[in-house]
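Handout, page 2. Input:
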Amino acid sequence: MNDRAPLLSRAVRGKKGFRTAVFVLVLAAAAAGPAAAQQAVILVRHAEKADSSKDSALSEAGRARAEALAVLVAPLGITAVYASEYRRARLTAEPAAAALGLKVQTYAAGDAAGVIGHSNTLPELMRRLGHPSEEIIADDDYGSLFVLLPQTGDTPVVVRLHY
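Output:
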């Protein structure tokens, strides 16, 4: 991981610190030029599930987290929101998409594209986007957010935050 990532991770404390860190990352991408700003990818695992069924809805905590995500991403200028066809992913993405004036576009869980995914699909997506190491997302980790910022001729800067 990039040497700058630990500094940003240590700077994140509470909602205000998290928002500041995401804002700084988006600003850094914009400062790198229009192409880099347009290529930023934000990956989020779906929020807490209501139960262990295959196509679970969100729990109360999950719905609250999805609403918090919507507030967080509203000012970021995101132009597309993707989620797998599973309810928990769509329900996590819908408040953010609504805040951005967008519709959630779904993809098959096995596809290599998406924003809201799963603990077992996000690491592969990051690898395909050029992240050289495999991130491990624990089964009970519902608050990780990964920001991938492509670098010309280099591996992307990847910062893992928690919301």
